[in-house]
Structure to design on (594 residues):
């Protein structure tokens, strides 16, 4: 296993925060020779060229993929089906394909449906990292350092392709972890999708109040930290909700039951129930953070 | 109006994050000559002495208040009634009293009940600032710089006392704002108390899951930013819930209705409803933050 395996030509389909950060990181590590970008708009491609994120821009997937040994699909989830269809007709026979989508069952199903003979060289992936600013202009080479990238290969996936993608991610400074697609989606529903919904619901509730200007003015700095994730890309999050609906509904219902319990405790002035919940919550978070921080060092 | 009016002797009842930060800030500005501290434990008093936060420690409220021209009550809310009772018997006739409690209607009622002839020199106050680490060891002189302090004087409050307390807070770098106690409690229920409940409910939900260790391990860094406020002091937050129950229930019910609407949208795969909510939420937060940042500059 060569941990510094160089990619000769990487085709990046979708040039945004995640895709841009990936190729910046690989370029900085010197493990990619050439990056060809495809994006929805000319403007994005021009920005990516100006920033040196991509070396060449192409308008069509087919031209970008020609001669590529690595293809990374980094678009919103709902843009993937037509892209996969087109990829199936133009991929080189040794090209490895991966994606960065936040919902893996949907991506695996889509790839299985559209990639036919190339499906074995498709390695589903999800870097668990991000920031609220979207777009290639927000990308940077350090976004994945110390983060986890989850790969969810299936039985049909070629182990050599999986290893190639894992090596690529390790070269960004990320740790690679393997999970089944369903387990990934269930876990991310709880740790990422639910918190986003909770934050959107909170900010939206405040925005609907008659005195909302005063509310936002008097909110402490902590409020803006807390709601930072409610400034994430709305289209991306709509797609996540639509493609991971079952797992998200399950955690949303469980969370709502917790809100109901706390509401009952406030109504009945049950100080002991409130204190128990707050103490358990603080302990879990402090412990989780401590373990995480020591694991990342 | 002398904006640098010096406090001769400040009695600090409750030596924690907020009280400690207040006197550190006043000392740094050179606008307090002597600080006498009272706390529940000897250990806290010794720490505060070692850190130079207080100049003298007293075990009893009466001894601390003797000769003080300013008395700051900075304890959890439910500790206030017996303290107010004791203060009423030992306050000097020109001493100004204030507090830093997060729920003002409760504090005004408590003070009105216990302070009798001294009530006119009691100025209810709330610095809208904090951090998740509690205790005098987490205090610092810059906690209130650029923040808002809300004062909620009532009709019986002596305007000169209000001005003395406002000057003290301005000397910490804070802006002072006047509101009625009910308006304060309603607004803070939405912008501070509700977000804390939401965060506690979320972390507690994850902690109850069978695979919670894996959940906390795979949570992105954003999750820990998001849930930072769920590491706040449980006793303080229990007291806030118990003393601002009505306003908190009202916003919790409104928020829950928003969660229900989003749950319905996910269940029925209503992408447009989801997108509308996410876009409105992002716009409100981005606008609120922009206004806030420019106002603080």
């Amino acid at each position: 296993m060569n941990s510094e395996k160089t990619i000769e030509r990487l085709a990046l389909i979708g040039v945004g925060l995640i895709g841009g950060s990936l190729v910046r990181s690989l370029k900085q590590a010197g493990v990619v020779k050439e990056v060809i970008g495809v994006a929805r708009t000319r403007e994005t491609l021009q920005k990516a060229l100006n920033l040196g994120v991509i070396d060449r821009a192409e308008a069509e997937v087919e031209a970008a993929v020609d001669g590529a040994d690595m293809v990374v699909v980094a678009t919103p989830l709902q843009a993937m089906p037509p892209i996969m269809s087109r990829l199936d007709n133009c991929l080189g026979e040794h090209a490895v394909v991966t994606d960065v989508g936040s919902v893996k069952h949907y991506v695996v199903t889509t790839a299985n449906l559209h990639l036919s003979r190339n499906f074995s060289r498709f390695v589903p992936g999800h870097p668990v990292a991000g920031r609220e600013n979207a777009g290639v202009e927000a990308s940077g080479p350090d976004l994945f350092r110390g983060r986890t990238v989850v790969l969810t290969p299936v039985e049909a996936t070629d182990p050599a392709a999986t290893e190639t993608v894992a090596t690529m991610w390790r070269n960004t400074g990320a740790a690679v972890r393997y999970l089944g697609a369903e387990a990934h989606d269930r876990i991310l529903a709880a740790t990422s999708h639910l918190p986003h919904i909770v934050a959107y619901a909170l900010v939206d509730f405040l925005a609907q109040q008659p005195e909302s200007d005063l509310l936002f003015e008097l909110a402490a700095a902590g409020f803006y930290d807390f709601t930072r994730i409610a400034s994430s890309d709305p289209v991306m999050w709509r797609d996540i909700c639509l493609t991971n609906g079952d797992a998200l509904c399950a955690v949303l219902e469980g969370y709502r039951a917790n809100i109901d319990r706390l509401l009952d405790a406030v109504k009945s002035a049950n100080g002991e129930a409130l204190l128990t919940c707050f103490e358990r919550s603080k302990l879990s978070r402090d412990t989780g953070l401590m373990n995480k921080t020591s694991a990342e060092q």
Q: What stands out?
A: The first strand of chain A starts at residue 7 and ends at 13.
